[in-house]
Amino acid sequence: DAGVTQSPTHLIKTRGQQVTLRCSPKSGHDTVSWYQQALGQGPQFIFQYYEEEERQRGNFPDRFSGHQFPNYSSELNVNALLLGDSALYLCASSLAFAVPGELFFGEGSRLTVL
Amino acid sequence: AQSVTQLDSQVPVFEEAPVELRCNYSSSVSVYLFWYVQYPNQGLQLLLKYLSGSTLVKGINGFEAEFNKSQTSFHLRKPSVHISDTAEYFCAVSVTGNKLVFGAGTILRVKS
């Protein structure tokens, strides 16, 4: 049973560029959430997708956008990258009506902005 | 809004000793409470959760936590730690279910 898979695992960008991160949820899961984990901090909620729509959003600017596909996989896009966007980006999958907070996390995509 | 404070950034402990990782939360409404563990270069894994009912919850790998509503705390404990427990531990709260608010984490270092 494949867990949550994310790609790429590492990437380096320069300020002003755009990046797309990808996530495939655990088999059978229909909800995908994205979190940003800066160095030395806990993960911060970016947004959540269910039925191909953004359902909840954290305190992140519009430069952060996402998408969910019919097969439940998801993308996170960040435009006009800033140095402060350097972080580990975690994808978590779950079932929409399952036990609250029972998220399954991928290993993350580590983004470095130079 | 909810917030989580993990009172210790690092906790060193010798193998087979007991350990407690402290977590306090702030919320004006009832919350669900969680502990997640992150091993090096891995994603987060759910250790245990409190949704309702008994205030003492047991999780995987011998960990347990106690919900104290009056002190707004949810401390994590293990009576005897192993080297393999070395990891970063995150306390989290949720009101809506799957939108988690995490603390800054506590690094548990188990020494032989």
Characterise this structure.
The complex is a heterodimer of chains A (114) and B (112). Chain A has no helices and 11 strands. Chain A is mainly beta and 114 residues long. Chain A has one domain: Immunoglobulins (Immunoglobulin-like), CATH 2.60.40.10. In chain A, strands 2, 4, 5, 6, 9, 10 and 11 form a 7-stranded mixed β-sheet that branches. Chain A starts with a strand and ends with a strand. The model of chain A has no long low-confidence stretch (mean pLDDT 94). Chain B is mostly beta strands. Chain B has one domain: Immunoglobulin-like (Sandwich), CATH 2.60.40.10. In chain B, the strands form 3 sheets. In chain B, strands 2, 5, 6, 10, 11 and 12 form a 6-stranded mixed β-sheet that branches. In chain B, strands 3-9-8-7 form a 4-stranded antiparallel β-sheet, with no helix packed on it. In chain B, a hairpin with a 5-residue loop joins strand 7 and strand 8 (64-68). The chains are: A mainly beta (114), B mainly beta (112). Chain A binds chain B through residues 4, 31, 33, 35, 40-45, 48, 56, 58, 90, 92, 94, 99-103, 105-108, and chain B through 4, 32, 34, 36, 41-46, 49, 51, 90, 92, 94, 96-105.
Give descriptors for this structure.
heterodimer; A: 114 residues; mainly beta; Immunoglobulin-like; seven-stranded mixed beta sheet; four-stranded antiparallel beta sheet; 11 strands; globular; B: 112 residues; six-stranded mixed beta sheet; 0% helix; 54% strand
